[in-house]
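Dear support,

We are seeing what looks like truncated structure output for some complexes. This example has three components. We would appreciate it if you could run it in full and send us the complete token output so we can diff it against ours.
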Amino acid sequence: MRRRGIPRLASVVVIAAVASLSYTAAAWSGPAASPFGVNATGTVQFWTRAATSGLGVALVKQFNATHPNLKVVLSETSPNQDTSKLATAIRAHAVPDLVGLNDIDVPQFSREGVLMDLTQYVDALPYKKYLSPGHLGLAQYNGKYYGVPYLGDLSVLWYNKKLFQQAGLDPNKPPATFAQILSDAKAIQKLGGGISGFAMAGNCQGCLGFVMEPSMFAVNDQLIRGPIGHQTIHIVGNKPLEQLLQLYRNLWVAKVDSPGSRTETGPTWGNDFEQGKVGILPGAYGFYPLMVKAGTIKDIGIAPLPGPTGKYSTFDGGDDFVIPAGAKNPSGAWEFVQWMMQKAQQVKYPSLGYTPVRTDVLTPAYRAKNPYNAVALQALAHGSAPVTLIYDAAFNEPNSPWFQMFTQAVYKGDITGAMETGQAGFERVLKEAGD
Amino acid sequence: MSEAVYDAGAVPAPRKREHGGAFWAYLVACIGLSLVFLLPLVWAVARSFQPPTLAASHPQSADFSHFTLSNYRAVFGQEHILHNVVNSLIAGIGTALLTTIVATLAGYGLAKFRFRGAGVVFALILVALMIPFQAVLTPLFIELNYLHLTNSILGLIFVYSTFNLPFGVFVMRNTFQQIPQELIESAEVDGAGVMATLVRVLRPLIVPGLATTAIYAFLYSWNEFLQALTFLETDSKLTLPVKLFDIDTSTYGAINYGYLSSGIVIAMIPCVILYLSLQRYYVQGLMSGAVKG
Amino acid sequence: MIEGEDVARVEEAIGPAVGEQERPVPPRPEEVPAPSGNALRRRAARIGAVLVSPACVLVGMFVVFPLGFAIYISLTDWPLIGPYHYIGLQNYSSLFSDPQFVHAVEFTFEYTGIVTPPIFLVGYGLAVLLRANRFGAKVFRTLFFLPFVVGLTIESFMFAIELQPGSGWVDWLLSKIGVASSTQAWTVSHDRALLMISVIVVWFAAGLTMLILTAGMQGIPRELYEAAEVDGASWWRKELRVTLPLLRRSIALSLIISVIGSFLAFNQFFILAQNNVSLETVVEWVYQTGFSEYHLGYATSMALFLVVVIGLVSMGQFLLLRDTTEV
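Here is the complete output from our reference environment:
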């Protein structure tokens, strides 16, 4: 055995083999190394949730028609199953490429590290500073972005201009303080004939939080404070919150709530307003297409939800795009996401009942074409949504502390006791979540 | 023939014509009760022919002059819930088939063959009878997830069939026990194998048992709600009851009562048809369970 | 039930069952000698085992394994995403300090207590009404059983529409009577909503009780009634002395089924009263804990607790009502 020859030969062979393998591996990492999110091919498995699927259904069709090499396959998750479906898919290692996740649900996933880190791509977006702060904030965890805004489902104050006029109120001056809401509602209630001054979904936990929290955001109170893992709640002693509960109590006592308000759980929320029977309705911008369909839109005005003595805000509800870790076609997903965030697509949102997630879409032309959505979009920049793991348990569940506090304060009239109940309830939920 | 089911006992039916007060009291009571039991169902059918806007107001006489097929046309036309009806059908028929086949095999084995471990099998069937699915909903969910059977009609079929097995095995075992052993032996001497015996020789005799098992399995699957609610996650896979629930609760402000009411009637149809036409097998199954305790 | 004529038909097809052995079977030279009794039995045993195996596999996979798995899960804090940890009996110990669980248990008991007597009494009454098989009895029985066939789930959706304040016929009816007006929020009131749901459940379940009791009643010999009549017994006395004792088994069966069903109640409450926390049953709370809040470990411990309770209650019922006179 020639000891010097073979080792030399062997090492040359090995080096050559390793070099060629590395080169092949590098070459295999992508066809001609296309940048992320550009000219992607194949399919994108896109999961959207039933509550907001209308937007996806409409726009995916257009995307597929204009992109011969990239096809988005839409799948609609059954209501209330969005988080469980994604979680079970993650456990089973069978994740989709893109998910339109309810934005308040994103933190629990980013925290577990099961979403793709999109920070570098988000930072590279030229319009990043115009993206909805509320949505983006929910997609952020430990300084990194795990999602981007998808669509806005905002809360606003609807009011009936015709009824305002009939009641002797200025139809171009919607209520901007709590006191005005109460007095305007009372004035309209006096019209009689089945007309009510105010309407709410009094038995719908999610609805109430959606339209009431903005009054707190308006005074810069996020209710749930601090970073995830060390969160606290400030209810007892919270003056603006007390005023908010007092407003709803006063409305209830003054009997200006519409007949269906007490029992409304959501499915028929806003129907009475759409039929022109209610003066003031804090509700979702998403009612807009229904009012158009009911033919009453010309009588209706829109305003942002006010704080106790002025200022306004909105609930930055809606969805964020997230790409699960281990997705097969993240590049294709990102290409679709960028397409959706183009102004050309964003301006199609309002007619479908949704609000764009870019504030730079709000041009005078836009305002002229979408006068109602312009109000919502303007509030978007001042909007917020609590970044926490406990949102569902604290606000949306049937037995949520928020709802218990609401019922005790509004229907039973015990505001102080209600706030104590709320404080204890929130603290319990926070503790169970490990805060 | 159905009379035989009810008159199985020793109480002879007094067929003498009664016209006394007692008879009329009986008749009035029965008719009154029948109306009470029947009216809600009939009204639901009537509802489905009303335009959706009318569904939002109290019943009035005007209701009956506005009959329309629009709710049904919408259901089938836009395919809004058609695929859910199909899912329910597939689940129902699949469950009926799987349950009937497995229960027949097991019932045959238990009735006509002696083998060690028959006691264990009995115990297993008993466990399936005693444990309600609600107790194992959570682990089933995790297990099905690992098997990639969540969000799948096939997964539902497996679970539904398993929980229908006790009843099916019981019925089929009873059925086989009533077959004279000589029949089987003569077929075996003829050279027929087990499956051939089962299919050719015994089939006509076991049809009643098969029908009973299949009907119960189908109706169980058709009406089942909680398991479908838990295991199904995508709109395209939902069975009818879960879809109706989604229609009823999920839309904020835009509930479509038209879809809901026509969906309800569509859901009712197989139950009523199967029951009325195959009443004998349906009731027989219950009776045999009741009498044997 | 095998009818005599069915057997006759088959016999015609394959020849008489008895006497088959008379036909001579010519022996084939290569044929292995006829298997001995032992081998036959072993073969039969093998076939039997094969026949029951699919059932055993299904039950093993979807009942027995999950049951064991459930016990394991109940000792962990299995979350929606992320790893789980073994926490011993912590889930069980926190059950009774959970106000919502305690309330759900109380409510489930309350609900069971409210619906069981009416279901039984109405079912009994219907069975008695049709016992004599007078004119139209078959038709009436069919109609009384129809709500059970349609199923409580579908009927809950029906009533979801009809209980709507301001639009359903139930609300309309009640407002005409004056019990509720369309402005009164009776769907959120505990008592009124529970009453409505109970009425619906009785309407649904009475037919089943009726059938079970009818089957039992058929087995009571007519002579016993006649003898009692000769003794001058009133109708009530006859029921007490003749019917009830002999009906024990059927009564026990119908009551056990009814109670178990009530303990496991979910569909009607979830569909009709999901937002009303005061009407939450145990299974609803299990579902919410497990699949809304994703505390799967905790939910499983609750479910197992429920099963144990059901087992105990059923056993108690069985012991109380069993036929002590029979062997």
